[in-house]
Write a structure and sequence with these properties.
By secondary structure, this protein is an alpha+beta fold. It is built from nine helices and ten strands. The protein has three domains: 70 residues, Arc Repressor Mutant, subunit A, CATH 1.10.10.200; 93 residues, YebC, transcriptional regulation domain (Alpha-Beta Plaits, 2-Layer Sandwich), CATH 3.30.70; 70 residues, YebC, transcriptional regulation domain (Alpha-Beta Plaits), CATH 3.30.70.980. A four-stranded antiparallel β-sheet has the order 3-1-2-9.
Length: 249
Amino acid sequence: MSGHSKWATTKHRKGAKDAARAKVFAKLIRQVEVAAREGGGDPEGNASLRTMYQKAREASVPLDTIERAIKRGTGELDGVRYEPITYEGYGPGGVAVIVETLTDNRNRTSAEIKHLFAKNGGAIAEPGAVSWQFDRKGEIEVAGPLDEDQLLEWVMEVGAENYEANGTDYTVTTEPQELTRVRAALEAHGLDVRSAELALVAQNPVPVTEESEAKRVLRLVDALDDHDDVQNVYANFDIADELLAAYEG
């Protein structure tokens, strides 16, 4: 598995089916609220809100819950004001990690994120220390299995950058501003799009080949991802499927 995005996709899909469902909903609702506050409550005129709206619906967040979050964001309903803060750091083996949060208490969140890094074999770094190793991209997860020659033809036709197998599914990568258009074009070809979102993609993933180190890296990203204020965790690891299976076991 190259990079953290696919690990997060698998983890969140599982989480939506078990006790973590409420936590997944809470994070998505917070993202919808902030997107509405920053760009207005109309998804047609607010690309960020449109993306988060779709993501929340794909996770089966109830429509009325999403609409209330939008109203809190636009000020029609009272609500907590969340502030986006991004943290950068290193995990075991020098793996680069970026943590995106939304918080109503900067001091509390900073202390807790720093503690999670230290507790799990990592360390917080200065802003800009690792972000240069990532590019902002659109990622579209497409359900498989598919004929890969046909998928490649469609990916090129719609102007996406590339695709990568993710188990029986595929992750199509595109430029951020092309995310909505490429998603629609792939759906027009009859493909089942599971999700479409902006993500940070590692330029040069770091191979993690030892089982013990792979477990330490995954424990760190899981611990960070489970924090209530954390919205996204990105890391530039490359872990073989058999090591992932050992961790899941």
